[in-house]
Write a structure and sequence with these properties.
Helix content: 55-70%
Number of helices: 8
Structural class: mainly alpha
Largest sheet: 2 strands, antiparallel
Distance between the termini: 49 Å
Radius of gyration: 16 Å
Order of helices and strands: HHHHHHHHEE
Strand content: under 5%
Amino acid sequence: MDVEALMSRPHKLTPDQLKSLWLHRAVARRLATDPDEVLRRARVNLDRLLLQHQKTMTEVWLRRWQDKIDEGVGAVYRALIAEDPEAVDLRQNSPFAGILPQPQRRKILAAFNAATARTGRVESSSCRTLSLLSSYSVDRDSRPCCHHRNLSIDP
């Protein structure tokens, strides 16, 4: 097998990496609807985390996130949803804590656990439940709402 074919093969994600991907795809949905607030909160988290992780490998990944944020919404969005090794490593050192409302986070984790229990494995790109859950958001008044085909998801 040549190097190019090897590099283009899909990266098999571990269950923890898939769980992180599910959560970060929901963050990507929030980024698409409120980029200024999501990036503002990520910058605040980055500042705090960089102080805590000076001179560590975590600092290296946090600086990579800082670069992505400086590049703009598109670069951040791609890192949140991609399955390549760099994106996987970035998500393991994420500055997006607190972006998802706890009810949404719990629903995503419950859906992930249910999908894993049913099949023994979870596919990263073909889960309809993830699509529905990631479109759940909280409006400025903190009332739950869903913008996906008028489906409501209880908070």
